[in-house]
């Protein structure tokens, strides 16, 4: 079995010559269980080999960039930026940043997989290996002074690779007249790495991501060749004999006798090494009970909320004992607030977690009314708990921070829901 597609996508965000992106794909599948040598294996229901190759495009420039970066546009000044000519003040026009060479970000994916099913499909499984190469990465980067009328601009900066393995498993261990048990499990291991940055050597560093709360546009993440995307770029903290961080003291990694940006190093990344999901469902007569879980292992978070508070003296945190519910972890550090402690690797924390997404208990009731051969008003009554618990060693409110920088966002609430579905 062979399938193929071809897409031609146009975008008004790119200049002439770059507007169109062409993205083909092809997939092959071989149902091995249909071959003669497997015809007599009754308990093996499916055995399929899959191979695929394809390309996709991405044109998202982010909300701060705008949709016409390729065009040399001008902006009229406001009332606070006028030019005096004699006794009259005139509005001026200033050029905007622009990049006519910006083009599609393209991801090419190779994958191979196997699908299995056994015992009348009571056991199913699949395993996939993949490799993704992303070229012409779109990223907003800093510009040299006095260049292109801005300090930052979106550019195609380089290449990124991802490779990994995905495995999924499903089973119905118990199937009887009154009782059924169903389970589903999936796990993914992924490795990602920057392989090229245009405009620099292998030591070239591109600050990126979310800025830290302390400092003026201080980026705690960066791209560099050989490291995962959005890795934390921080100073190595020095500790006392009791394992407590010493305020404002870092390792002089380049040995030049002073602490500066050359002493920052790459330390972990927000992307987890392993992601997992698990669901299970029990059905006993008209009752059903289900639960869903997800987990991540090896993801790290920069605890920016604590870093920000740690830069305040203990007396300031309590403010003359007016505040009694301040963050105790910041108080325990005992910092004076006189040193620059932003970007310390002390605040890069392992945020691995296991979350229960929901638990649902339901009862399906038969028709409440009958008229002749017709039945009316059947349905299902259910009770659901969303986000009932998290298991993690992370001290922040929520370890699941997509940006990797924890600025204390509003956490996902635990919620309770009672509902009924009716069939008339």
Describe how the helices and strands are arranged:
Elements: E1 2-10, E2 20-31, E3 44-58, E4 74-76, E5 82-85, E6 88-91, E7 93-95, E8 105-118, E9 123-135, E10 138-142, E11 152-156, E12 158-175, E13 179-197, E14 205-211, E15 219-224, E16 231-234, E17 237-239, E18 245-250, E19 265-266, E20 274-284, E21 287-297, E22 300-302, H1 304-310, H2 314-318, H3 328-333, E23 348-350, E24 353-365, E25 369-371, E26 374-376, E27 378-392, E28 415-423
Antiparallel strand pairs: 1-2, 2-3, 3-8, 4-7, 5-6, 8-9, 9-12, 10-11, 12-13, 13-20, 14-15, 15-16, 16-19, 17-18, 20-21, 21-24, 22-23, 24-27, 25-26, 27-28
Report on this structure.
The protein is built from 3 helices and 28 strands. The chain is mainly beta. Strand 12 and strand 13 form a beta hairpin. It starts with a strand and ends with a strand. The mean pLDDT is about 90.
What does this entry show, briefly?
The chain has 424 residues and is mostly beta strands. It has helices at residues 304-310, 314-318, 328-333, and strands at 2-10, 20-31, 44-58, 74-76, 82-85, 88-91, 93-95, 105-118, 123-135, 138-142, 152-156, 158-175, 179-197, 205-211, 219-224, 231-234, 237-239, 245-250, 265-266, 274-284, 287-297, 300-302, 348-350, 353-365, 369-371, 374-376, 378-392, 415-423.
């Amino acid at each position: 079995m062979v399938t193929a597609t071809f897409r031609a996508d146009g975008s008004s965000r790119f200049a002439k010559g770059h507007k169109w992106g062409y993205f083909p794909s092809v997939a092959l599948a071989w149902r091995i269980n249909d071959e003669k040598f497997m015809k007599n294996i009754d308990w093996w229901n499916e055995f399929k080999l899959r191979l695929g190759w394809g390309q996709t495009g991405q044109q998202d420039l982010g909300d701060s960039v705008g949709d016409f970066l390729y065009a040399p546009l001008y902006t009229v000044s406001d009332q606070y930026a006028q030019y005096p000519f004699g006794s009259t003040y005139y509005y001026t026009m200033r050029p905007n940043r622009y990049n006519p060479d910006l083009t599609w970000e393209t991801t090419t994916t190779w994958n191979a997989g196997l699908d299995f099913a056994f015992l009348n499909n009571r056991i199913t499984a699949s395993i996939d290996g993949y490799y993704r190469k992303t070229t012409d990465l779109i990223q907003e980067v800093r510009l040299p002074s006095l260049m292109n009328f801005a300090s930052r601009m979106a550019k195609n900066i380089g290449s990124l690779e991802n490779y990994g393995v995905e495995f999924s498993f499903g089973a119905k261990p118990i199937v009887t007249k009154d009782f059924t048990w169903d389970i589903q499990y999936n796990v993914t291991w992924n490795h990602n790495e920057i392989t090229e940055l245009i405009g620099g050597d292998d030591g070239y560093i591109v600050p990126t991501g979310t800025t830290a709360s302390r400092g003026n546009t201080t980026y705690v993440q960066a791209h560099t060749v050989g490291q995962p995307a959005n890795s934390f770029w921080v100073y190595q903290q020095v500790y006392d004999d009791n394992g407590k961080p010493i305020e404002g003291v870092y390792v002089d990694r380049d040995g030049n006798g002073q602490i500066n940006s050359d002493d920052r190093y790459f330390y972990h990344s927000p992307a987890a090494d392993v992601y997992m999901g698990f669901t299970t469902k029990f059905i006993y007569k008209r009752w059903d009970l289900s639960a869903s879980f997800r987990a991540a292992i090896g993801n790290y978070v920069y605890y920016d909320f604590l870093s920000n508070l740690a830069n305040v003296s203990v007396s300031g945190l309590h403010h003359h004992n007016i505040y009694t519910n301040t963050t105790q972890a910041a108080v325990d550090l005992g910092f004076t607030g006189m040193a620059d402690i932003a970007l310390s690797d002390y605040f890069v924390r392992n945020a691995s977690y296991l979350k229960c997404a929901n638990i649902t208990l339901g009862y399906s009731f038969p028709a409440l009314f009958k008229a002749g051969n017709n039945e009316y008003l059947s349905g299902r009554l259910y009770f659901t708990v969303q986000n009932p618990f998290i298991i993690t060693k992370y001290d922040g409110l929520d370890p699941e921070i997509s940006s990797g920088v924890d600025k204390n966002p509003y956490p996902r609430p635990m919620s309770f829901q009672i509902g009924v579905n009716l069939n008339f």
